[in-house]
Amino acid sequence: MKIILASKSPRRCELLKKLGYDFLVVASGREEIFSPNLEPLENCQKVSLNKALDVMEKTEGDRIIISSDTIVLKGNVIYGKPKNRIDAYNMLKSLSGKTHEVITALTVLKIINNKVEKIEDYSKTLITIDVLSTNEINNYLDTNEPYDKAGAYAIQGLFSKHIVKIEGDYYATVGLPINKLYNILKKIDL
């Protein structure tokens, strides 16, 4: 059966390769819109589902579509991808010296004979970051790394030196909870 990753994220591609499956990449064109009427987890799940549904509309045949979305949450504030350097600076300054939550929603659609089976799951991880100086933040912002990442940092990249503690699924914070995904795929007899 054809497996499709509904993401152009190189990190998600790398993580899916760890499961040993051959897959195609078909990126979703859906805009990530958060509703003020939904809880952060619900928003994350909605975005993940919408990406999967968008890719389902673009593809044909029997297939499995895998999609996910990751948000950074501090208090009840969602930190998405920064709009610019100032936005990224403010996010990192706000996260500095504190513990925050990373939520990754996972959607798997199994389509056989045009019948759709939907499986959803999520992962929550607590991340504690060092107290960051203005210079440390600005030096990090001088790299290209923070600008396409929720919360303006990549846990697996240059920012890793500022991670004090991880409580939960490391791979989910990178963008794909591979253990949960593996167990879903196993359950649906892939």
Structure description:
Strands 1, 2, 3, 4, 5, 6 and 7 form a 7-stranded mixed sheet that branches. The protein has a single domain, classed as Maf protein (Alpha-Beta Complex). The termini are close together. Helix 1 links the parallel strand 1 and strand 2. The mean pLDDT is 94. It has 6 helices and 7 strands; from the N terminus they run E-H-E-H-E-E-H-E-E-H-E-H-H. Helix 3 packs across helix 4. By secondary structure, it is of the alpha/beta class. Helix content is 32%, strand content 29%.
Outline of the structure:
By secondary structure, the chain is of the alpha/beta class.
- Helix/strand/pairing category: alpha/beta
In terms of per-residue confidence, which ranges show pLDDT below 50 for 5 or more consecutive residues?
A: none
Helix % is 25-40%
Shape: elongated
- At CATH level 3, the topology is Maf protein
Radius of gyration of CA atoms, rounded to a whole number: 17 Å
Strand content: 25-35%
Question: What's the architecture, going by CATH?
Answer: Alpha-Beta Complex
Q: What is the string of SSEs from the N terminus onward?
A: EHEHEEHEEHEHH
Q: State the name of the first-level CATH class.
A: Alpha Beta
Number of strand segments: 7
Tally the structural domains: 1
Task: Describe the SSE topology.
Blueprint: E1 2-5, H1 10-17, E2 24-25, H2 40-58, E3 63-74, E4 77-79, H3 85-95, E5 99-112, E6 115-129, H4 134-141, E7 163-167, H5 170-174, H6 178-187
Parallel strand pairs: 1-2, 1-3
Antiparallel strand pairs: 3-4, 3-5, 5-6, 6-7
Helix pairs in contact: 3-4
Which structural traits does this protein have?
single chain; 190 residues; alpha/beta; Maf protein; seven-stranded mixed beta sheet; 6 helices; 7 strands; 32% helix; 29% strand
